[in-house]
Amino acid sequence: MIPFNVPPCVGTELDYLAEAVRARKISGDGQFTRRCSAWMEERFGAKRVLLTTSGTAALDMALLLCGLQPGDEVILPSYTFSSTANAAVLAGAKLVFVDIRPDTMNIDEKKIEAAVTERTRAIIVVHYAGVACEMDAIMAIARKHGLKVVEDAAQGVMATYKGRWLGTIGDFGCYSFHETKNYSMGEGGALVLNDPKYIERAEVLREKGTNRSRFYRGEIDKYTWVDFGDSFLPSELNAAYLWAQLEKAEEINENRLRSWKNYEEALSPLAAAGKLELPVVPEGCGHNGHMFYVKCRDLEERTKLIAFLKERDISAVFHYVPLHSAPAGRKFGRFHGEDEVTTRHSDRLVRLPMYYGLTEEDAGRVIRAVKDFYGE
Predict the structure, then answer these.
(1) Which residue in 41, 94, 126, 316 has the fewest CB atoms around it within 10 Å?
(2) CATH topology classification for 249-373
(3) pLDDT by residue (tens digit) across 305-352?
(4) Which strands sit side by side in the sheet containing 160-161, from one edge to the other?
(5) Could you say which DSSP state residue 357 is in?
(6) What pTM, to 2 d.p., does this model score?
(7) Cβ atoms within 10 A of the Cβ of 7, count?
(8) H/E element holding 143?
(9) Which pairing describes strands 160-161 and 285-286: parallel, antiparallel, or unpaired?
(10) Is residue 164 a contact partner of residue 142, using CB atoms and an 8 Å limit?
(11) DSSP class of residue 193?
């Protein structure tokens, strides 16, 4: 069986895990947590990066830092994972879903402003497949209406928009290091703070409402409970696993991009013949090879393709059921405008196997199977 995903592993993870154990510091904010945070701050030019227990936790923190009140509204795409929406619901906001673009599957920047009301406080953008949303237009809307922008860059680590790293453009950026992502710590994530004024509040929020971070830096002689907070710190063991991969970040990125390009070149004749559609990467966007998908003619064809691949020991999956059609989506939000793209295109999309270390032989098997399905 060719799996859909294999968690990344570069070979030094166990060495660093052992080092963390020998140091007798396996709770949060030890040497490996500091290394990972410092690496991202330097590499991405972020004001501050805080490792979290998950990408979901990073989103939760970002929306809480937006200072939302009950009844406030948050604009977001319906084509995303539930974590994006849960973070806004947790903060007490109402969800306002808008349609997506058919080329990138990202939020349609042209449909955001019409959804803005006097209750709107934030926009959450999701950089699907590590391909950037149209951030210049979105940031202009946000500035015009005084809105916060949260980048759900769970799939966007090491991807760029017009030379800027995803996660560093809005007010807050959120990364995921789940085992399905390009870089992993099993379960984990990071909050990127792009405005220094939020750093102290974020540290308190992350440390169970205490000012312990200041205590560890020697800025105060004891720490205490100062505000609302929660426990968003990951274990040092998780951070040690991630550090091994950040050291090999370029290698992992280049490996995934080669696999992505291999798929694109081999399947482009099918796209040229109008039998399927391939991912689109707009000019100015530097993607990270997070996923490779194809779009079938319709839901029926997609179902048949997935079954066809499964019969040949190839695992392929679809991605997402639109949130506005889910029970919780109907309970907590509404769809603004017409659903012209979201449902129709989500019904057509199939994700092919993609992971660090995918061999050319296995990729070739996937490519041949897709071509066989379409009679090529």
Answers:
(1) 41
(2) Aspartate Aminotransferase, domain 1 (3.90.1150)
(3) 999 999 999 999 998 999 999 999 999 999 999 999 999 999 999 999
(4) 164-165, 160-161, 285-286
(5) T
(6) 0.96
(7) 14
(8) helix 135-145
(9) antiparallel
(10) no
(11) E
